[in-house]
Amino acid sequence: MTSIEELQQERLRKLEKLQAAGRDPYPAESHQSITIAELRSDFAAQTTGGEVTVAGRVMAARGHGALMFVDLFDGTDRIQGYLKDDTLEDFALFQDVIDIGDFIELTGTPTVTKRGEESVAARSWQMLTKSLRPLPEKWAGVQDIDTKLRHRYLDILMHEETRELFKKKALFWHTVRNFLVARNFLEVETPTLEVTTGGAEATPFKTHHNDFDLDVFLRISVGELWQKRLMAAGYPRTFEIGRTYRNEGSSAEHVQEFTNVEFYAAYMEYKEGMQLTKELVLAIADQVFDTREFTTRGHTFNLNDEWKELDYVDTVREMTGVDVLDASVADMQSALDALGVSYEGDTKERLTDTLWKYCRKQISGPAFVINHPKIVSPLSKAHPDDDRKTERAQLLLAGAEVTNSFSELNDPRDQRARFEEQQRLLEAGDSEAMMPEWEFVEMLEYGMPPTFGFGMGERLFAFLVDRPIREVQIFPLMKPKQDSH
């Protein structure tokens, strides 16, 4: 078997042949006149329109003697190149130097072969990029995820399913943006480097700002506290689609860097926001997936079914026997031990969240969980009927929360008190507690209108395509290989 090193040496010899013949193996200019998809969209008309120049990567080459065929792929479609020694200039050189993986362009006449294959009968050719490493012949059989993610460019090149996945993901975010713009939301950009991380409970990434000689953090939400400032500034509706960062563990549902959308609407409360959420998710289902029925993570759900509303406290009580509002830390720990659920931390906030996560995994949805305890919702408005609860709603699908929304807290006194509680948790060693943002409290003292806030991430996309979130990221973070040089 020929080694990779021997194959690379052979390709280097071919590169030298090109140079000796006066042909640049890496020219800057291409003369492509039409994409392959455009050519094939109305091929019959193109056969009477004269010559075209197509460009792309050689994905297959066959034939010998006076005739050759190559399959070109330019990212839009594929087409066959038809080459004959009596019509193609430098045919012998082409035969000598061409390899699968090379980028070339062919100039010639669109034609249909005797076998009915749409082709370009080439008159001339140009090397655009000489490939020095052969494409893997058996890539279709590669099952190792690490290999696929590390060589994602090959995964995308060799697998149409992967290419279509990321086109669909682009359509997912395009649909979200269009949905919000059509409802008069203003797209904004907010800082990704923050002095304090606001808007969520998570462990942040920390770095240092040399010019200010100041420690800063990568944001853990898409500008929640900044967008609320914009509500105070007079913008009635804003949204941002952007990257967020959380220095936490990895799982099928969690990575450290991901894309989220957050939007804020003044003069809207969480019940109205739940209807808007439903409309958005249905728009995604219809426009991106063309279905409302999904099977994922061992769950099946249909978005045409009733969207139930589940009270957080009642649901936990019914499924575990624990009233999280009144139970002690010891009661919660005993219940979790009896259920065989592992837990970290000994605060009521962490244990409440752990009990809820046990429950949610059993709910296929679609359902909204509402009325979260205040202790796990430091930024949402207290419920008017029970100030131990909040006006918060999360959409549950396939045993997980895929959206998060609130009637936003705008009472500066209440917000200050909750931040003080978060500060106590931080000082007690809870790295996921929310950092207080006292300038945000100052803004609230000037006044922020009643506001609905919403967050949703690419995890929803991962759920709907039934893939781990890492696999729906084009280039997830990978540990470098020691021999990568």
What do you see in this structure?
The protein is of the alpha+beta class. It folds into two domains: 4-129, Nucleic acid-binding proteins (OB fold (Dihydrolipoamide Acetyltransferase, E2P)), CATH 2.40.50.140; 156-307 and 365-472, BirA Bifunctional Protein, domain 2, CATH 3.30.930. 34% of the residues lie in helices and 25% in strands. It is built from 15 helices and 21 strands. The chain has helices at 4-20, 36-41, 43-46, 91-97, 145-150, 152-158, 160-182, 224-233, 270-289, 312-320, 329-339, 348-360, 412-427, 438-446, 458-464, and strands at 52-62, 67-73, 78-84, 103-112, 118-129, 186-187, 193-194, 206-209, 214-218, 237-245, 257-266, 293-296, 299-302, 308-311, 367-370, 382-383, 386-390, 392-397, 400-401, 403-407, 451-457. Strands 6, 10, 11, 14, 15, 18, 19, 20 and 21 form a nine-stranded mixed β-sheet that branches. A five-stranded mixed barrel has the order 1-2-3-5-4. Helix 8 packs parallel to helix 14. The radius of gyration is 29 Å and the shape is elongated.
Task: Record keyword descriptors for this entry.
485 residues, alpha+beta, OB fold (Dihydrolipoamide Acetyltransferase, E2P), BirA Bifunctional Protein, domain 2, 2 domains, nine-stranded mixed β-sheet, five-stranded mixed beta barrel, 34% helix
